[in-house]
Amino acid sequence: MLPALPYVTRGESLDSLRRKKVLPTIPVSPIGYDEAQRIFEFMDGDQVTRSDWVGGLSSYKWQSRRLFRLNVRSRFARRTISNIVAVLEGREEPDRWIMLGNHVDAWGKGAIDPVSGTAVQLEVATVVAKVFEKHPPRRSIVFCHWDAEEFGLIGSSEWIEQRLGVLQRRAVAYINVDHIAGGSSLDIKAVPLLYRTIVEASHR
């Protein structure tokens, strides 16, 4: 949650995060669907009726009078992570960046998240490089592959925190292609400033 390098500007400290109650006060560990389903089967409180909370679960209740014990076996170790950043320099405004990014690590096998997005990103990079081989784009295009996303957006956060001033001056837009599941519908989330651009692009 904080920059790894001491000279990087820190917007928060551990004390300020504790005062805001951002940090959990009890240990938290993600579990798989099979384990979660077994726990849900013993829940005996009120039935959850909101469909957007239930998801694909057949039974989901609020509370249980039962006690559960979860044994977690994990290792604490330091690991080196690596971001991959490639730049196709622009012709007229090289200091204005259009950024396309995705992470490379996966929770599990990662066929959808992130490999579907990674495949699209690599194909876009290949096509863009060929199209602009002789005539570079107006602005620079920055392709970013982030590491350690599943551990808390670590790779991208560290990279941004070390270059925050530069990004504030140069970054025009960032397009995230974390996972692309496919299908007949188009679902894109963006800041309001990009709404019109997205609609116009989808009509082409």
From TrEMBL:
Coiled coil: none annotated. Gene3D superfamilies: Zn peptidases. Pfam families: Peptidase_M28 (PF04389). Residues 83-184 form the Peptidase M28 domain. One of its GO terms (molecular function) is carboxypeptidase activity. InterPro entries: PA_dom_sf, Peptidase_M28, Peptidase_M28B. Belongs to the peptidase M28 family. M28B subfamily. This is Peptidase_M28 domain-containing protein. It comes from Nippostrongylus brasiliensis (Rat hookworm). The lineage of its organism: Eukaryota, Metazoa, Ecdysozoa, Nematoda, Chromadorea.
